[in-house]
Specification:
Blueprint lengths: L1 H22 L3 H7 L4 H9 L6 H10 L4 H5 L11 E3 L4 E5 L7 E7 L16 E8 L2 E5 L2 E5 L4 E5 L4 E5 L4 E7 L1 H10 L6
Antiparallel strand pairs: 1-2, 2-3, 3-9, 4-7, 4-9, 5-6, 5-8
Helix pairs in contact: 2-3
Length: 192
């Protein structure tokens, strides 16, 4: 147990330094943001000062992260295989850090519905990116054309539908818990 505690201590110190460097901040800049002295921060990063919980909370806030993210240990199960729904052309991956989130890959061949009554509206948010082809996103009364590598993010309370234009397209969609539930009710296979 002592070994694990020492490993976690070292990991947190490395993360603090890496996050500071990634922001492009000097010790002085982060110390000012966290209301610490520069020497205290240096000793924390170098393992010469004890990690105190109140200082970690303050540092996490200053670095725009959470205490949980600072102290989480590496997961052994890094790789996730998709759940495949061949009947609907879907692959779905759960997001382990947020079980309510799902990532879905879908191949579309049909255009979006012409009839506005066939558009969905439900609680949640969606984000999607077009991997190949051209997608049409119907969003309320708007018709948005999304080319390969373009993305869209929208609240799903807005009536919406998506389809292909001029041939097949593939998209990746990220659904929060509410959006996934809305698609589970509306379309068998989406977000299951």
């Amino acid at each position: 147990m002592e070994q694990e505690s020492g490993d976690l201590d070292s990991l947190v110190r490395k993360r603090l330094r890496a996050l500071r460097v990634a922001q492009g901040w000097s010790l002085e800049e982060l110390a000012t943001r966290a209301n610490l002295s520069q020497s205290s921060l240096s000793r924390i990063e170098n393992g010469q000062r004890r990690l105190a919980l109140d200082q970690l909370v303050t540092l996490a806030r200053a670095l725009d992260t959470t205490l949980d993210q600072l102290v989480e240990t590496a997961a052994d199960d890094v790789v996730t295989s998709p759940m495949i729904d061949g009947a609907h052309g879907l692959m779905r991956w759960p997001v382990k850090s947020d079980p309510g989130m799902s990532v879905v890959r879908q191949r579309m061949v049909e255009p979006p519905p012409d009839n506005p009554s066939r558009m969905r509206a439900h609680p949640g948010r969606e984000w999607l990116v077009v991997l190949s082809g051209t997608a049409i996103l119907m969003l309320g009364h708007r018709r948005l054309r999304l080319e390969t590598n373009q993305a869209a993010e929208f609240p799903t309370m807005m009536p919406h539908a998506i389809g292909a234009e001029g041939g097949p397209c593939e998209i990746i969609g990220i659904f929060d818990r509410d959006a996934r539930r809305g698609h589970q009710r509306d379309t068998p296979g989406v977000g299951d």
